[in-house]
């Protein structure tokens, strides 16, 4: 069998398993029938079924447990979007501005939602992250604190898909954050000032103010990157 035909057959097998999941016949956590039974039922060869299962396991749709069987995963957005994180980590440096453009669209929305939905305990956690930054931090400490701060807000949005997208964008933009911290005068002070303004707006339950500060914060890094 030529490679082109093999790929087409595997794609067909993937689609048939996908349809079983979409129809509810295979629910999250469900165990797939035995390989021989499933292959016969779907009209597939066992080899093409095996290739389809392997491909779906790579993108966290299926979980192959040696000696136990193959199961549908939880299908949670964070799990399924792990593959996206891997792809984003392969970006070229000349695309990093585009990642900041996407951050500028998504994160202000997440921040506004967080201002409405975060509990008092959640907001206290956010404050603790700010307070955890040393008085004279290294660039690495500043960037790690920045990542924790934004991740906590994304989780506070209450939207797991949005949170997963925001967290996926962290990797491709991390080097630019470090570079800015090393080269832009006043980057530390500006970051702390804007983080505090975002926190204050969230704590005051002012979603549109929180959205505005998040936009200013991300757009500032983006503008700096365009200049340099």
From TrEMBL:
Q: Which Pfam families does the entry mention?
A: FCD, GntR
Q: Which residues form a coiled coil?
A: none
Q: Please give the SMART domains that the UniProt record associates with this protein.
A: FCD, HTH_GNTR
Which residues are in the HTH gntR-type domain?
7-75
Chloroplast keyword on record: no
**Gene3D superfamilies named among the record's database cross-references:** GntR ligand-binding domain-like, Winged helix-like DNA-binding domain superfamily/Winged helix DNA-binding domain
Q: Which UniProt keywords apply?
A: DNA-binding, Transcription, Transcription regulation
Q: Which SUPFAM superfamilies match?
A: GntR ligand-binding domain-like, Winged helix' DNA-binding domain
Q: Which GO terms describe its molecular function?
A: DNA binding; DNA-binding transcription factor activity
Question: What is the name attached to this protein's record?
Answer: DNA-binding FadR family transcriptional regulator
